Amino acid sequence: MTAELPPGLALQKVDERIMTLNVGPQHPGSGHMRIVVQIDGDYIVACDPDPGYVHRGEEKMAEYRNYITNIPHLERPVIHDSCNVLYPYVLGAEEILGIEVSERAKYVRVIASELNRCIYTMYWLAIYGIFLGHSTMFMWPAGDRELLIDLMEKMTGARVTHAHFVPGGVRNDLPPNFEDVCLRQVNYFEKRIKEYAAVFYDNPILISRTRDTGVLSRQDAIRLGTTGSVLRASGVDYDLRVKEPYDVYDELDVHTNVMKEGDSYARSRVPWLDMMESCNIIRQALQKMPKSGSVRTKLKPNPKTKGPETVYKRVESGRGSLGCYIVSDGKPEPYRVKMSVGSFRNLIALPYLLKGEKLGNMPSVYWSLNYWPVEADR
Amino acid sequence: MSSDSEKPTADAKPEAKPAAKPAPKPAAKKPEEKPVELPAFEKGISDKLVEKFADKVEVAFVKEDRVRINVSKENVHEVAEFVRDGLNYDHVESVTGVDFPADKEIEVVYHIGSYSDSSLGRQILVLATRAPREDNPIPGQDSTKLPSLRDVFYSVEFGEREVFEMLGVYFEGHPDNRRLLLPEDWADLPPLRKDFAIKGR
User: Fold this and answer.
1) Which chain A residue's Cα is nearest to B6?
2) Partner residue opposite A222 with nearest CB, options B90, B174, B182
3) How much is the pLDDT for A172?
4) Residues 37-76, chain B: which have Cβ within 8 Å of A?
5) Domains (range + CATH), chain A
6) By the CB < 8 Å criterion, does B31 face chain A?
7) At the topology level of CATH, where does B40-172 sit?
8) Which ranges in chain A belong to alpha helices (H)?
9) Taking 80 as the threshold, does the pLDDT of residue A221 lie above it?
10) What is the pLDDT of residues A226-283, one digit of tens each?
11) pTM: predicted TM-score of the whole model, two decimal places
């Protein structure tokens, strides 16, 4: 029966010595996915990631709703980073609908997306900490994250899933006195995350578990098409906020954090450095933002498109480049929406990195990829 | 089916030669300066492709940071090799399948970018090709097939697997054409085809 199957679909024969082990989807260390590993003794000889347990068909749903009603569900893949997930879609919809955005709205978007990046990264850091057995590193980020969630709540009215970005700007203007509160909280937050170095990043136990595990060389990081912190940890200087600045990032001074090592330690450190960079960006944006003005261009409930068009917009999210390809056929609903997400692109590195690694190193390699299963499945 | 003039994708008239262009307008340009200048750098990329492949590639648009070319499925592998070796692009960001039941075709779109060449940092080359579509698909065993680009760009591996399960396009030469996101026992139509309807809609 296997002979009739096209190549690639057939079952493969496994050696007698090799044991196949399913990690997940119920195993807490795997996230919402299954990782099929083949082990020889303690060493992984092959790894086959099997995502899809949280596939929700976002792309299919987007074909049935118009450009505005798509907003609340398209941010679902990463609820902590919902502003960044919506960002490329909103930029693309603006081009298709032909809407201009005010200067102040662009700054508000930048602040919101940087706050969201920190909120996401703190959540990821908490998980990374707990799966390395470092429970302080679970409690601290989970607690400090609340500061920024409070800020987002003031700004948008919701703790997560803000649905704040709309084509034409943002949904609501900033509340009174937001700038001062934001500056104070961000300054405190930055001071706080710097303390993580002493308890986590300079911790010899963490270093011994993550140094030189899962090394991704620069050439392979490029060849595999990885993105975001995984790419920058392997020594590639690539950040879309610098390379292809969208909205007002070209007016801000953004520094790209790059590390050369390419191991799990570098991959876990780069997002932490990025959070400090986010604090810098927020401070600059608060300073340069126009103090008053409209933040939203009024739209009709079912806006008209300019005509058949395809756009591909991308932004730098917490997990790397996030692209949105929208095909419009001139109807009020998009013909096709494709989200090219960082998690999905980084997943390809997992089988590559785990080969030859000890099974005990799997959590540190897997979570250092900054992988969010729900986003990869969409 | 060689490089069909596409329906919903063309934002300006697609023309075979980009030499003399009535050309798509780059966004936010005043209407009075009407012989719109194409962005020079992007024009250079498309010119190189046309110079090399002449009629085999059809330049659909040249916009700021984005160049789109349509290629027939016989030539897509050869063009992709040139894009990698001749133009310094090194990874594929996304592989998208788009179903066009009216044309009886499925379009597969590769968005190709470059990390190693810093002048291409903001560029995306959009490479589109089309496969024939069948009304009663048997994924993997009907005529909906395309050559895989996995040996040219390693990074298409999961993207092509996703297109295979979601639209039923089998990639010949792909080493691992299994399902990725859908359950193993999925027996319905490939779900991103237009004739797969969501309940209640």
Assistant:
1) A308
2) B90
3) 85
4) 65-66, 68
5) 59-344 (1.10.645.10)
6) no
7) Beta Polymerase; domain 2 (3.30.460)
8) 58-62, 71-74, 82-97, 103-131, 136-156, 178-194, 196, 204-210, 218-223, 229-233, 240-243, 264-288, 342-347, 349-354, 362-368, 373-377
9) yes
10) 988 899 999 888 888 888 888 888 888 888 889 888 888 999 899 999 999 999 999 9
11) 0.83
